[in-house]
Amino acid sequence: MSQKDDLELAIMLHGHIAPGLALGVRMSRVAMERLGIIKGTRKYVGIAETSRCLADAIQATTGCTMGHANAIIQDYGKLALTLARVDTKEGVRVALKKNAHEHSALMKKWMLREGKLSRDDEKELGMELLKLNEEYLDIIDVTINFESTFDNSKIVKCEKCDELIPIGITVMKDKILCKGCAGNAYYST
Q1: CB-side neighbour CA atoms (13 Å) of 77
Q2: Distance between CA atoms of residues 96 and 135, nearest Å
Q3: pLDDT for the residue 73
């Protein structure tokens, strides 16, 4: 797939062109090139350091997805992402340098949040970001410090709610419980 195809897929996922989406496509492609990987290789994990547009771009560009448990958000509020091998933990982190606002007036307005961009401005900046010179990117080799969270263990029944779950993510409190029944639910009824 071309960078343009990746952006079109990202736009379909995200709903519209946004500067962070285009930046995420550019950063993802830089990381993929540095690691010598092709889209959809499941032995990699994509990590976005923001819960915003970059996360959608990683999924569209790399093939790392929430459903494969290899698209992860570590929300540090940074315009940065990492692509790394699951087996060796070796990867590449790509971040926007602090001086990137010098690229253009639109870039400065967006990066430093000096005002709201119009849809036309977002599209224009997005196209600029797809071609962003690597001089504005901080590209470093990294080692990730966590395991993939995909669990492929035997399925068991929670002894409280009777829902089926992988035994590898149960909580044992005198009986087999899902995280929700063990008091770790993200919702209440």
Answers
A1: 1
A2: 10
A3: 93
Q: Is 22 within 8 Å of 131 (Cβ atoms)?
A: no
44-64: pLDDT as tens digits: 999 999 998 999 999 999 999
Structural domain boundaries enclosing 61: 3-143
| pLDDT class of 42 with cuts at 50, 70, 90 | confident
Scan for tokens 């290789």, then name that residue: 41
The Cβ-side half-sphere exposure at 57, using a 13 Å CA radius, reads 35
Range list of H helices, the chain: 3-14, 19-35, 53-62, 105-111, 119-130
Return the exposure string of 110-135: e unless at least 16 CB atoms fall within 10 Å of the residue's CB, then b: bbeeeeebeeebbbbbbebbbebeee
Cα 44 from Cα 62, distance rounded (Å) = 9
Amino acid in the structure at residue 46: G
| Res 88 pLDDT > 80 | yes
**90 and 45 in a common domain:** yes
101 lies in the same domain as 160? no
153 confidence band (pLDDT: 50, 70, 90): confident
Domain identity same for 159 and 82:
no
Measured distance CA(23)–CA(127) in Å, rounded: 9
